[in-house]
Amino acid sequence: MEASFEITLQMVIAVFAGISAQVLAAYFRVPSIVLLLLVGILLGSDGIGLLHPNLLGMGLEVIVALATAIILFEGGLNLDLRELGRVSVSLQLLVTLGTLITLLGGSMAAHWLGEFPWNIAFLYASIVVVTGPTVVSPLLKQINVDRQVATLLEGEGVLIDPVGAILAFVVLDTIVNGDADPINAIIGLIMRLGIGSAIGGVGGYLMSLIFKRANFLSFELKNLVVLAILWGLFSLAQTIRSESGVMTTVVAGAVFANSSVPEERLLRSFKGQLTILSVSVLFILLAADLSIASVFALGWGSLFTVLALMFVVRPINILLCTWNSDLNWRQKLFLSWIAPRGIVSASVASLFAILLTQRGINGGDAIKALVFLTIILTVVCQGLTAGWVANWLRITSKEATGAVIVGCNPLSLLIARFFQEREETIVIIDTDPERCEQAEAQNLRVIASSALDVTVLEEAGLDSIGTFLAMTNNGEVNFVLAQRAAEEFSPPRVLAVFPRDPQANPNSNNKVHQAFATDVTIKTWNEYLNDGRVKLGTTTLSEPELSQQQGRIQEKIQAGELIPLLVERKERLQVIPVNQKWEAGDRIIYLLHDPRPNLLKRLSGGNQSTRLALEKLPEVEEVPLDKLSELFTSDTPGS
């Protein structure tokens, strides 16, 4: 009874410490793995001695195996095949050629710098070829990096985990059995990958069928059924061929995620929570089992080994694998810097230390210490600096360009044309076929469907576009659409036209900003555009007259005679929100209501049968704000 209570107490401490570290990491906005490592080491035998993972015995291996299955399945769920298609060549190279480069480079560094024998050096390198989605994914969510870079890093982390884990076991099997034939090693690797992929593909399809057709099951029970099937598939693959289960879990997750399963979000949420719990417990237990003395005993050579892995091997890897890609040097430099090792490396290293010791082979504890040194250095250095590096290189999602506009009308077409002329991605979504035809006639990409459908927003590429703008004639619908877009995709700028003050609305979402001005009536301004009763104006704000210019603009906005559309700042064009803070140097593009007809027919599209001209939009009339009132003295009462 006392022994069972001791084990129970160990698990309770690990869970409590892991979740506490996650909470602190969220509060201080630092990578959670950093605190998990520190807390685990603090609670371990080299710290205050509260945690003793060795008391779990073989149970620790069971926990590691089942938790790793959940972690990799959740990683597979996040693999979007459409997004991966954009970086497929680079990703394939990173998982194949990149694995080989890291294996060879890491081995040479460990042998020549760390003075490890070649067999142990190769074993170390095989363990650290993985980067780990459990570290990369939370890190990318925190810094909101450019979507193309994020997709490549996430795809690498998820796909290279099973490849690296299987490779490590193949290398271990070669060392233990003394079989140095590379052909046998390659065959073993391919067999494990093939068996795991086959079982995972069938299992993922089975899971999707259950979610689609088992309507008698509640959502909660479906989630648990998927968990039971996942562990069953993992065990089946492990039974057929050892270590093929890791590939099974990734493929099962990827197949399930790309099967258009309803209520998939609920499963993602459930598995995401399990992943957080699994990562928290595993890192606490594995870090607590680490001997700090063994890390210091490695000497300076091992430190140089890790630094060579970070500053030599990784950049060479990225340079060769992305040579012919469309990535710019900023993106490649960021990819070279971000390669933190995670839970798979830690768990495999811990397991190998035990297996090598049991077989009487020296080097098990040294490998574990060197792997954890790699984890600590890569996570702390790269994790804590990733946000700063992304901002310095200007590759955060805040720098994303382009726009998805819901609502095809003269005003949205006019805004779309500005983005189009700058060669930025622009997508218009509307359910009216006739309006869609008008937009397509202007070479604009149009999706004739409802923006309430998340798959439509995915098709529009909202996860890699900077602005979402809902501007149909229905303000309530616009607000709902914007909320949905913010919740599902979190684009940097989410705007909607709705006739109310967001500050006064108790149900307002601070992620959704009111576009243009308060109480804008889209229908009225579209009528102005169709009748040609507008002027398109631009004014650049200057430092000496900034307050006066802002005041005059606000007067015209409140009078309903002006609607600000876009602001150009630092050569970046953005849709203007109501709460826009203007600065000197901003170039404001706006529409002025002019009762005199036919002044902007060629720009606004004129009537229903005339579309916007395709030629480059000429520089619009520069209207000094101190002369705005003169435009209305003869036609507008009170101006």
TrEMBL record:
Return the Gene3D superfamilies for the record. Answer: 1.20.1530.20, NAD(P)-binding Rossmann-like Domain (3.40.50.720)
Keyword terms, alphabetized: Antiport, Cell membrane, Ion transport, Membrane, Transmembrane, Transmembrane helix, Transport
Q: Name one GO biological process term.
A: potassium ion transport
Q: What is its main location?
A: membrane
Which domain of life does the protein's organism represent?
Bacteria
Example of a GO MF term: antiporter activity
The residues forming the signal peptide are none
List membrane-spanning regions: 12-43, 55-73, 93-114, 120-140, 152-171, 183-211, 223-240, 246-262, 274-297, 303-322, 334-357, 369-393
Which InterPro entries does the annotation name? Cation/H_exchanger_TM (IPR006153), Na+/solute_symporter_sf (IPR038770), NAD(P)-bd_dom_sf (IPR036291), RCK_N (IPR003148)
**Keyword Membrane included in the entry's annotation:** yes
Please state what the protein is called. Answer: Cation:proton antiporter
Q: Which organism is it from?
A: Halotia branconii CENA392
